Amino acid sequence: MGAGCNNNCPTCKCTKTATIIGAGLVGSLWAIYLNKAGYHVDIYERRSDMRKENISAGKSINLATSYRGWKALDEVGAGDEIRKIAIPMSGRTLHQIEGDLQYQPYGNAGQAIYSVSRGGINSKLMDIAEAKDTHIHFNEECIGVEMAEGKATFRNTLNGVVTEVKSEVVFATDGAFSAARYLGMQKTDRFNYSQLYIADGYREILLPANEDGSYKLDKESLHIWPRGRFMLIALPNLDGSFTCTLFMPFDGHTYCFNKLTSKEKVNDFFKEVFPNFYELMPDIAEQWEQHPLSSLAIIRCYPWTHGKMALMGDAAHATVPFFGQGMNCGFEDCTVMYELMQKHKENWPAVFDEYQQIRKPNGDAVQDLSLQNYLVMRDKVGDPHFQLIQKIERRINYLYPDQYFPLYSMVSFTNIEYKTALQKGNEQEAMIESLIKKNKLTHESELNEIDNLIHAFMKKELPI
Amino acid sequence: MGAGCNNNCPTCKCTKTATIIGAGLVGSLWAIYLNKAGYHVDIYERRSDMRKENISAGKSINLATSYRGWKALDEVGAGDEIRKIAIPMSGRTLHQIEGDLQYQPYGNAGQAIYSVSRGGINSKLMDIAEAKDTHIHFNEECIGVEMAEGKATFRNTLNGVVTEVKSEVVFATDGAFSAARYLGMQKTDRFNYSQLYIADGYREILLPANEDGSYKLDKESLHIWPRGRFMLIALPNLDGSFTCTLFMPFDGHTYCFNKLTSKEKVNDFFKEVFPNFYELMPDIAEQWEQHPLSSLAIIRCYPWTHGKMALMGDAAHATVPFFGQGMNCGFEDCTVMYELMQKHKENWPAVFDEYQQIRKPNGDAVQDLSLQNYLVMRDKVGDPHFQLIQKIERRINYLYPDQYFPLYSMVSFTNIEYKTALQKGNEQEAMIESLIKKNKLTHESELNEIDNLIHAFMKKELPI
User: Fold this and answer.
1) pLDDT level of residue B290 (50, 70, 90 thresholds)
2) Is the distance from CB of B290 to CB of B217 less than 8 angstroms?
3) What is the pLDDT of residue A401?
4) Deepest of A23, A54, B103, B457, by most Cβ within 10 A of its Cβ?
5) Exposure pattern of A321-343 as b/e (b: 16+ CB <10 Å)?
């Protein structure tokens, strides 16, 4: 047992110790980072080991890994393992109610976001961490933290045994409803906290593969059925199936979850508003109850650190999923925290202080971006005027690839800070709006005319 | 014991029962309302009986009772008892740093807000409730609620005995950090909640009476020492003393609490920025530690009712104290809930539903008004331009007493809904701004000219 280690790891030679509460995506990745920095890590996880359960790919929500996620994974050499289970989606395929399909690329050639199953990526990260200097303790519920001391207490959910752990630093990566945050931060004076639910919930649906294992929809797209106030989306799984998610208000609208009270109503609803999806899955009503109806919240808080404890990932900044950035932002927390460890030579008070100052505005921004993108996905993507803005944006980006990035690209294909992306993105949209208005541009405008306007415009004001 | 009563009250003949959690201001008043409606009420209070402790008037924060408060008290005949311990304050006296005094009336002749001690009013309300059909159980901490069942569980803090109570309806009036809200509401899905601390804290100071028992400052004013980013205020007590409160940032400013780290620094601070106050109280530094430094938060949540339980007062809408409306708004919750009981013939699901729909926007508005009025009190009251707006407002109100009310009057001297007052008040300020600008009005403008402009203006657009 190493000098600084308080755990019973017979072979441990470490002198630096860290405790992580929660073995989810961010906790597992952060353990690998800490191992790289020479820390012995103990992760305590409330749930049982998901690798020993039979979780099929389509049964858990899918995630889209983008640039920030890959950067964080590659930094510790975990990217290639995850690439093996990731499916590139280079654009959106929109399914209009009449059955017309429209493809919108996410970025330039070669740029894509990647569909991965939460269970798949989480399991791989746990495997990698355990192969280094991390010990994961399952079925351990956090029942107390003493942040000033770096202490955390856990109760085993199977045998009731209580364990108190002390280490140099403690990281709470236990998600949106973090027990560590509640037991620690929330009891300090002047801790700001808000949980705000949006009016919409979601329900997952598994669209199975064809009998020969092939995909029922184009595999390399994120599919969207935009319907104004609600939408259905589908992300590909490795086995030929798609994980589909219906986002819709709980109540108070023509179409809402609380009106779908019988199999017949579910059947009629899909037949009416998602006819081409219904054709692929005529037994939708039978499947309806297989996944629960879930709610969606934005959780903000501050400060994110206190004494020897820091919040990371959803525990600090849980968001609604509409920009596909929840995991990517949590992974970027790891990149940033690690850079600060090096900058401040592991002087933790200095690391924690700068971490929360840098990351809090970005946590807020990723939440604002997520809310904003729900409008884009469910409504604006189908709007000809918005499509014209996107067309001109892509053209500017094509002509000035190093100087101009559309908002979606800044968020998904760069690591420009979220707060900067949000601000610049909104400024850029306003500028293109005025370009369109001033020059009366339409979808019929000549490419030549648009290019000339873009060149004049970019000479005058470089937006970035 | 009455048919619907689950408590051991030997003389009770009631058939309707209610449980109130918290015997503070709102809980005690609401009990009197429920008694009037024929309910037997049991209040469970975590603290001991304040009437048996020796709490002197000046030791607890003072409150200002205004129109809504009196209306709610008078509705159940409690107003006259409270008037005996209330001191009218008909305006603000501003103390400039040079020692100049300026008096600003709050409203028209005869209008005032009233200084009362929290302990004084609370004790009276408990006495009145107990003289009716209310039983107050002290030292009873709420440890659980089952909202659907109307059940609440308490543990006696002296002997550990646990009591489970069931009644037709349960009201949580246990304040900003409501245990009932946490144990009930906060565990339901889609409960929106936020606690946001402002950057400022407060510390109370007791300015004693002269040796002959007389007041050291004008008794019929609320005194303000406005200093831009911070302020000191003083409210009169019955015994000749004043309860003073310093509101100031915790840190990050030229003047802030975290810099006042020694008696010497406290002494120098008061001498420098509150010289006329310092003359009245040269031993300020000795007294400094007698009251704690406290924080200030806005707490918002929704829904306010679930099953058989409703939140009232601070448990639903705790605010910062700068409009003096926290208690008044909580008391108005009682007026509104009682009116709805009559409207819906005590059909509680209908009462609760309309209660939260009506009161939530007003709870939000009183919080917005409170934040806005901090700026007014600490800074704008001393600004000549703001004073000109106020002067013209008072004149419009004088000429059109039934058609125009300044914001302060709408909030303090009417029961116009808070949300309406907030909206109208801001619209009116903008209109007067434009009147001043358009006609180049100054403090030197002739009254005659101002009156003519007001008449023309009021003929054109009646703001209310």
Assistant:
1) confident
2) no
3) 87
4) A23
5) bbbbbbbbbbbbbbbbbbebbee
Give the dihedral sign, CA A224/A227/A228/A231. Answer: negative
Question: Which of B384, B426, B360, B344 minimizes the C-alpha distance to B169?
Answer: B344
**Under-50 pLDDT residues of chain A:** 1-5, 56-59, 463-464
pLDDT of residue A446: 93
- For B196-224, write each residue's pLDDT tens digit: 999 999 999 999 999 999 999 999 999 99
Residue B198 C-alpha, separation from nearest chain A C-alpha, in angstroms: 8
* pLDDT value, residue A459: 82
Residues 238-277 of chain A whose Cβ lies under 8 A from any Cβ of chain B? 250
Which among A192, A193, A295 is the nearest to B189, CB-wise? A295
Q: Give contacts of B197 with chain A, Cβ < 8 Å.
A: 190-192
H-only helix segments in B132-234:
179-183
C-alpha dist (Å) from residue B69 to A456, A459, B115: 65, 64, 12
Contact B222, B93 (CB under 8 A): yes
Please determine, for residue B257, whether its predicted confidence score (pLDDT) is greater than 70: yes
The verdict on ipTM greater than 0.85 is: yes
B contacts of A196 (beta carbons < 8 Å)? 192, 194
Q: Do B192 and A196 touch (CB under 8 A)?
A: yes
Q: What is the reported pLDDT for A59?
A: 44
Q: Which residues pair with B223 in a beta bridge?
A: B93, B234
Nearest-Cα residue of chain B relative to residue A295: B190
Taking residues B377-382, report their average pLDDT: 86
Probe site for chain B from A183, A197, A257, A320 (most B CB atoms < 10 A) = A197
Average pLDDT of chain B, as a whole number: 93
Residue B194's closest chain A neighbor by CA? A194
Single-letter amino acid, residue A165: V
Q: A interface mutation test: which of B182, B183, B189 has the most A CBs within 10 A?
A: B189
Nearest residue on chain A to B302, alpha-carbon basis: A196
Q: Quick check: pTM over 0.95?
A: no
pLDDT in tens, B312-352: 999 999 999 999 999 999 999 999 999 999 999 999 999 99
Local structure of A433: helix, strand or coil? helix
Q: Give the integer Cα–Cα distance in Å for A250 and A381.
A: 23
Residue of A nearest to B293 (CA): A189
CB A175 within 8 A of CB A22: yes
Contact state of A196 with B195 under an 8 Å Cβ cutoff: no
> Which residues, including other chains, have CB under 8 Å from residue B56's CB and lie 6 or more apart?
B239
Quote the CA–CA distance of A322 and A296 in Å, as a whole number: 11
B404: which DSSP letter?
-
- Please give the backbone phi and psi of residue B403, each rounded to the nearest 5 degrees, phi first: -115, -20
Domain ranges within chain A, ordered by starting residue = 383-458
